[in-house]
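Q: Two folds, back to back.
A: First:
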Amino acid sequence: MLANEDNNQVIVLEDDKGERHNFEVYDFFKEQDNDYVVLLPTQEQQDKYPEEADEAVIMRVEQDENGEYMLTTVEDDDEWERVKEAYEQKMEELD
């Protein structure tokens, strides 16, 4: 994990093509005993890929057998719908 000039945590994710994408940690939340992180593209990433500027990424936070944290993609459609709805509701409550 890195930090940018604003001291925000930056996560680097690699896509299927091997391209690296930088995201800032925006938020954490819990849904059905799982922890999730919301990532937003860094300004540099938005400048490089303007079509992705408004896209948030939600990933599950897990711990491996050594206690190290790792991010995993939400693959299950039902889980994804629950997580997406939970986060949208959280954002509505903040407005």
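A: Second:
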Amino acid sequence: MAKKGMRRPDPSDPHGTESNKKQKFPKNDVAPVPEIQNKNRG
């Protein structure tokens, strides 16, 4: 029998970034912090 680590991953199995169907983030309506934006340097 083949090793468990050598088995082929199922293409229909959600893996890595394909499992982002449940990541429904609300929109970030907070204004960004001006210190982390490089527009006001100098």
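Q: And?
A: The CA atoms of residues 1 and 7 lie 10 Å apart.
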